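Kindly review this protein for my students:
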Amino acid sequence: MVDTVVRLRHTYGQSVRRIAVSTAIGLSLALTANYLALAQSGTSPARDPDSAPPSYLLEEETVAKPPAAPTTPHTVACSESFGKDSSHFKLAMNFGFRNVTATNVEANGTKVAASVIFSDDPQQRLEVWWKNATSSGTYQIVITGQSDWTAPGGLRLGLTLAELEKLNHKSFKLKGFDKNGIAATSDWGGGELAGLAGDCNAGLSLRADPKVSAKIIGALSPNKEYASSNPQMRAAKPTVSEILIGYPTDAPAAEAAPQSSSPRSGAPRPFGTW
């Protein structure tokens, strides 16, 4: 009896082991068949077939930089770096020491300390002349050549008489043309350009159109004043070629009258600058 029971238990254990092995083999074959079917159909349950594949930057690739903002012209304001108490150091602190060069300029036969901003860039170049040899105390600010700088009141190089009258809100006076074809403003007639923001003043030189006949230009004497609306003056088609910005001084009016021109460029002296 005991032997019979033992044989039954042995037979039952072998059957259980066979069933377990068969079940495991069956599951493995089913999973393998399912994987092969998916691979052959080319579908993937984890991705939408209609969506574009994601793109990733490789380590060697670089992100393109946005385009640089367009350069805008600088503006002179009669305060802070361009205030009457400015200095070379203040300019250098504002525009960068590499962008401001200390130099000397010729004025009335003497050398004057000056600072030049962006000296190597004709369109950004700006000169500041100093009252003191220590490069301090603003004497005058000069916009000339190809400079894109704008002065207070909207003044800039290349303006016509009509455009200046619009800024001034009325007609003004200027001297006739010298031997170089340069005319100098002499009186803003109490217009908007007579007193600029920051208590600074501006004087302009205007160059006659080179295409205009010498007869028309020669008829306008540099020793006389003409209204900006004068037909002969308009016929010369002058445009602003230089802008001088300065501050009134405590000198008597007779001494400060800006009737003469700068010997360096033929430009008029700013009203009351010196």
Observations:
- The helical segments are 2-41, 88-95, 161-168, 214-218, 231-235, 253-256.
- The CA atoms of residues 162 and 228 lie 8 Å apart.
